[in-house]
Amino acid sequence: MYKCIVILFLSMTFYYAEAKEYDHVVQGYVIDNMTGNGMDSIHVILMTNDSTVIARTTALPKVAGELAGMYQFTIRKVGKYIVKAKCEGYEDGYMDCELRNNREAAILVKKIRLAKASHDLPEVTVKATKLKMVMQGDTIVYNADALNLADGSMLEALISKLPGAKLNKNGQIFVNGKYIQSLLVNGKDFFKGNPKLALENLPAYTVNKIKVYNKAGAASRIMDRDMGDKSYVMDVRLKKEYSTGYMGNVEAGIGTKDRYEGKYFGMKFTDMERVMLFGNSNNLNDNQRARFNGEWSPQDVPDGLSATQSIGFSYLKYLGDEDSWVSTDNTYSHTNVNNQSRTSSQTFLTGGDSYKRIESLQLSRNTVWKSYNEFSIQKFRSGYYLLNALNLSYASNKGKSNSILETSDSISALNQLLTMNSDESNLFSFAFLHEGGHKITPDYLRWKISANYDHTNTMDFSLNDVQYMNGLTPRDYRNNYRHNSNQHWDLNGNLSYSIDWPEKSINPEYDYRYIYNKTSNLLYRLDKLNGIDSTRFDLLPSTREALLGVMDLNNSYNYHEYQNHHQFQLRLTGDNDWKINYWVLKLPLRLVHKNLFYERLGRHDVSKHALFFEPSLFAKGSLFHFSWELDASIKSEIPDLTTMVDYRDDSDPLNIQLGNPNLRNIHRYNATLSMTKRGSQQRMLSVKFGYHQQDHAVAFGTQFDKGNGISTLQPVSVNGNWSTDTSLGYIQALDSTQKWTIDNQFSLNYNHNVDMTTIVGYTESQRSIVNNWQMGDVLKLNYRPNDNYEFSLHGGGNYYLIHSKRDGFTNIHAGDYNIGMNAHISLPWKLQATTDLTMFARRGYQQHEMNTTNWVWNAQLTRSFIKGKLLAKLQGVDMLHQLSNTQYMMNAQGRTETWHNSIPRYVMFSLAWRFNVNPKKKVTSSPSQ
After folding, report:
1. pTM of the model
2. Which of 545, 583, 668, 680 is deepest in the core (most CB within 10 A)?
């Protein structure tokens, strides 16, 4: 392997040393000195230092959006140059620039600001047609005005209706299957601390367009080339009247079954400053919303009943005319949870499956405080940037619970466990980051320093009473007190230097990471205290000596772990090479030292060292009108050292844990190929293929005793785990007026799963291989005749094929599907109605109760008053009372059915007041001619 590395290194060195004459880009912007925006009809001239004209061009017009006012030339000689800009009605503008080195790919010229002459030009209004989606190169642009939404809708409702977009219940956004890494507002990451604030509080009526694109990071903007720091973002562009001023929402509602909600949101916008204040109080399980697009399936019902109160404050101040800022985001929330559940599970085992049934009640109070703070200086034209970030958080939890667990085989019950718990925990963490970069013409220097720390402290009281039904195993009664303390440090430093040519670069890099873990887990058997009633719950002895006398030494432990990671990496990039538009090859060598000092009935120290070669390749290009991206990588790791300690933990008498000193290093192989083709009529075809393999994967082998229902779990290294995934997405307008659109997303996944199972009485562990196929499809047909009406038909489903050659395994052929319709209709008297009716069905499952059919109907009626400032809303959620609060999950190891108490059905009336205050435009009179 290392001979191959040397040969590859020498070959790439020869490639990068190849002499070649390059074109050097001269690029910049011409903007209006007053507004800072690009203009139309700008003529740009490139001259030598003695004012000799070399070339002429025209800057991009206003319709180019963010690129308005941009110009570009190419040169080949080192030297000083002058750029001149001319526009009718403005004074001429000039800017000097210089090409210092032949290896410089580009010169980024400082912005040329043109001042108006003695007269103003009349404004020109451009009217755009209401297309839902247009393509601008690799950028997708959605027109918010082409989507019909109910009055009072927030940003989340708008995004959920975008063609090819999917918004899950956790606030994660996907476009054509690709994860959105950042949600921006007017190009700025204002909601970095909590993007869900924008989704739930930013009114949809303020949005003009939504852009989805790969945003260049600070290093890429400084060097004007891809430096590997791009991120896939969604940029919400507000309408001009909402980009400066004040806006806010205040809403209060009351519903059936004592449901209530109240929230407020206020924001001040200027070009240089943003201030936001919000609050929320409800007992609607916080993220529970009535969906009107058919995507709220029965499995999305939040668990239990919760009441939440939260407040937050955010401030962002831009410094100067470039991307420099100081910001802070602070949130505080308190939640009370009442969670009742009933769970039935089946574990697939050789010779007969095992079954468990659990009933539990949990009451808890959670408090969370978070603060995200950033200070950034980004001077792209000057060639450097600095970013400093400090994040702090504190969380506390208090809870009580009780449960009943019963384990059985296919014939009779094996054991029963009664449990009562009281726990209290708190967590404090902070994270500090300093990173920066500086252009050393024509090269680039980058560095990063980070520190992360967290400390968790937990106290838990529990009464456990296990009774075995075989009459042979004695009853096991325990009154436990557990004190657990965890500390974690993660320190990282990185230094890299990029040696650049116009179409290629070589980047040596060194990365050092230090990790420290400290854990103390002390378990005390209070039932062994003399003279104290062992049924007394939540009570400690008066002296420390008495407590130490009942320590469970078999199940108490503490350890210190030290990790040192040294990585030496060579990063190679190229543009327009080998018929590939752009490629990145990373060749890292990572040296890992892990040392664990473990105490548990004596010392059990573990030390592991490894040298990993973890290459990766990213490339993109175009072929047969398809744009494609290839991403492949190899990653390796040493298993968690705490699983490699030779120990036996029976603190849970029904689930005994063993260590395994013979675990092997884990290796992961991943490759993904994505292809996209774009055409007219909003046509877009996207295809994705993925392959994933894991060698020496850690699986928890299970030994099950059919006599008493006790499971013994031990981590083992297994081979043969691999999976593939394929997806196909197609979007198109069906008619010339683009009133009809279709959106179809198809997926096919296969998982070859391997683990180990053993039944007491068998001489050897059984290698269990389960093949899991999943095929899914989501189809949407949308008709929007005008701004007053919109109708959609939607349907989808998943088909599961799970089979195995293992003895006693019953193959599973099952599926879920749904079909429904939703509508948005403008009614007389300024009423708006939005409704969705969807049927969710499950078929083919072995358990009869899993084969269900649920009709879910959500509806909403709104009416606005006082020029749209006051909104009255009547909302009905699950009006047919068929939204299931039972969740079913199935995988290669077994199936689980869980019921939770919830509030899927209610009717609520609410009033919302929204306001928007914009500064008045200054009116100036033109001088007489």
Report:
1. 0.81
2. 583
